[in-house]
Amino acid sequence: MAVEVLVLKESAAGERRVAATPETVRKLLAAGARVRFEPGAGLGAGIPDQAYRDAGAEPAGADARSGADVVLCVQAPPAEVLAAFKPGAVLVGILQPEAEPARAEALRGRGLRVFPLERLPRTTRAQAMDVLSSQAGMAGYKAMLIAAQLAPRFFPMLTTAAGTIRPSRVLVVGAGVAGLQAIATARRLGAQVEGFDVRPETREQVESLGGRFLDLGVSAVGEGGYARPLTDEERALQQQRLAEHLKGIDVVVCTAAVPGRPAPKIISRGMVEGMKTGAVIVDLAAETGGNCELTVPGQTIGHGGVTIAGPLNLPSLGAVHASEMYARNVCNFVALFLKDGTLSFDWNDELLARTCWPAPPAQETPAAAPAAGTSG
């Protein structure tokens, strides 16, 4: 009997993305799976049910959740949905099982084989499966567009009959995937752009996009391409120099993140109060607490003439392309264990072993691979 793959309809508020597209449905069918989709699953991403049917997928019936061998989703389903899955079913998505104790308990209690894709090792081989990178690109793009909309000024320099308009000065904090996309977007809009990151190796990337690298004399090179937490002395020096620089900035987009930890606080209340009236801060890190001390997740507030936005789930604002990228990431990951219509897990493969949560049972892990199953 063919492996049954179910594409869930997302239930989280405001979530418009979907975990499979007609393109990836065809690939799953070619791998020998039977694909079913919940009606309306792709509507938020511009995919009607008929498009899934045309690709060879079938609408899910009442028994689809209990019969699925593999379930594909974007965000973690609520507990009542998890309870409908059969024990041993495979769940793939951005699941963050340890973010909520109740969620972790529901996942464990149902005996599901869980693959939270945010745990995927960020190696060269994993790039085609890297949901964090693909979704961060959309987030950075949308964050800069929000900043341009909120800013009470033009981004580009303009020469008009009423005189010359100087370009906006934009600072992007954090030069990861989201930050670099934000820099590129600001440049396309004509702004004068700077990028700041405590990892000096990002200078070349910032400059390659036409931005100026802001060097505050603080380096925090960490592991896996992320920054390490700063020492108290380093933080004090960074804040002193950054506060002075922010006085001349019109727009700040914050994107700095440390995996598994709250977002680092980079812009303090005092810095905000030293910025010019009409300045704008868009804090892409709002979902993990924000890079700005005054950020209120999900809200846009004013403080002393400065507008501070803390938008949530920015990739969902670009659901069509975000879903296309996400679905390809998911399909590439599923291809690691779905072959010729059967499920087979090679725990010698670090992409499977390190993404699986909890770690694979010892009896399933080959003795030749003692490191398999360690958290990534």
From TrEMBL:
Q: Which GO terms describe its cellular component?
A: plasma membrane
Q: Which Pfam family, giving just one, matches this sequence?
A: AlaDh_PNT_C
* Gene Ontology molecular-function annotations: NADP binding; oxidoreductase activity; proton-translocating NAD(P)+ transhydrogenase activity
GO term, biological process aspect, one? NADPH regeneration
- Where do the Alanine dehydrogenase/pyridine nucleotide transhydrogenase N-terminal domain residues begin and end? 6-139
Q: Which residues form the Alanine dehydrogenase/pyridine nucleotide transhydrogenase NAD(H)-binding domain?
A: 148-310
| Keywords assigned | NAD, NADP, Nucleotide-binding, Translocase
SUPFAM superfamilies linked to this entry: Formate/glycerate dehydrogenase catalytic domain-like, NAD(P)-binding Rossmann-fold domains
EC number(s) for this protein? 7.1.1.1
Reactions accelerated catalytically: NAD(+) + NADPH + H(+)(in) = NADH + NADP(+) + H(+)(out)
Q: What superkingdom heads the lineage?
A: Bacteria
CDD domains from the UniProt entry: Rubrum_tdh
Q: Which InterPro entries does the record match to this protein?
A: Ala_DH/PNT_CS2, AlaDH/PNT_N, AlaDH/PNT_NAD(H)-bd, NAD(P)-bd_dom_sf
Of which family is this protein a member? Answer: Belongs to the AlaDH/PNT family.
Q: Which PANTHER family match?
A: NAD(P) TRANSHYDROGENASE (PTHR10160), PROTON-TRANSLOCATING NAD(P)(+) TRANSHYDROGENASE (PTHR10160:SF19)
Q: What does this protein do?
A: The transhydrogenation between NADH and NADP is coupled to respiration and ATP hydrolysis and functions as a proton pump across the membrane.
Q: Under which name does UniProt file this protein?
A: proton-translocating NAD(P)(+) transhydrogenase
Q: What is the lineage of its organism?
A: Bacteria, Pseudomonadati, Pseudomonadota, Gammaproteobacteria, Lysobacterales
